[in-house]
Amino acid sequence: MSDLTQLAASRDVLFVGGKGGVGKTAVASALALQQARLGRRTLVVSTDPAHNLGHLWQRRVGDAPVELAPLLRGMEIDPARTTDEHLRAVRATMERMMPEHLQGEVRRHLELAREAPGTHEAAVLERVAEVIEQRAPDELVIFDTAPSGHTSRLMALPELMQAWTEGLLRRQDRSARFGAALRGLDRQPDAGDQRAAEIVGSFAGSRRVGRRTDDRRARRDAEIRAVLDRRQGRFRALREVLQDREQAAFVIVLAAERLPVLETIELEQSLLRASMHVGALVVNKRSPAEAGPLLAARREVEEGYVDQLTRALPDLPLLQVPLLPGEVLGETGLDRLAEHLV
């Protein structure tokens, strides 16, 4: 059994990533199919905005899981729908909490935020967290990720989002305390005001109105706190899963070429900074040495890049997958690829 198969069998969550065009989706799908064939329920999820899962499996795959093979489901996270739902949820929460005269400003701000840097990644991260939260206890989830730069940002987000949410919680605490102090001051009318109010019979009523206003503000503060607590809990749980090397690992797929090798070394370092464990490397589409002089020469060039890779990352298990005759397409093609992952 290969290191890659052992890795998949022993983890709950795997991320498969690397430079664009190296065969990430095919390797993620073949690995998922292999695990399903071995009897484990598996879900393969594409987070890449340029989805290829449906094309590869030759069937429609959408934002909800569909059956691809016995014990194997697949889904493609829809970034536009995910961003819409994310912003809709944020708007609903903010509209409940903000005064009515500021709600138009909230809507305009969120419309601008739709295209802001990081909005798409934050929305995808929410779905990643949701998929992991909802996985069955024995199910393996394999994420087929976007090319390296996009994935690096995504993997760094749980840490950033938790820090950001903690900052909001601290500000919310300060704001709530400040508001309570102001309301305490507001409840201390001077003796003249009290006497005048008692004469016209309005003091008791004004105190009731004050209490109702205080209650609304207190409920709003509590709701803000609850929303931020839930968000912080979700990102903390996601970060704990991603950083637990017993639960999750990252598999980098690459071609034995200069740029994919350099990008793999950089990606491994960025994942290390995000405290994620890289469990294996897959060098895909290795040229055969005995299929004519052209491919033999090509193989010799590739050997140099494989050597460079193993020198840079000597402790990582490395699996080499040969260039297959014909196109890897559909369940039959993925079965042929899966044979080389065992």
TrEMBL record:
The UniProt GO MF terms for this protein read:
ATP binding; ATP hydrolysis activity
Positions of the ArsA/GET3 Anion-transporting ATPase-like domain: 13-341
- Which SUPFAM superfamilies does this entry report, sorted A to Z? P-loop containing nucleoside triphosphate hydrolases (SSF52540)
Q: Which Pfam families match?
A: ArsA_ATPase
Q: Which InterPro entries match?
A: ArsA/GET3_ATPase-like, ATPase_ArsA/GET3, P-loop_NTPase
The superkingdom listed in its UniProt entry is Bacteria
Gene3D superfamilies recorded for this chain?
P-loop containing nucleotide triphosphate hydrolases
Question: What PANTHER family has UniProt attached to this entry?
Answer: ARSENICAL PUMP-DRIVING ATPASE ARSENITE-TRANSLOCATING ATPASE, ATPASE GET3
Instruction: Please report which protein family the annotation says this sequence is part of.
Output: Belongs to the arsA ATPase family.
User: What protein name applies here?
Assistant: ArsA family ATPase
**Which classification does the entry list for the species?**
Bacteria, Bacillati, Actinomycetota, Actinomycetes, Micrococcales
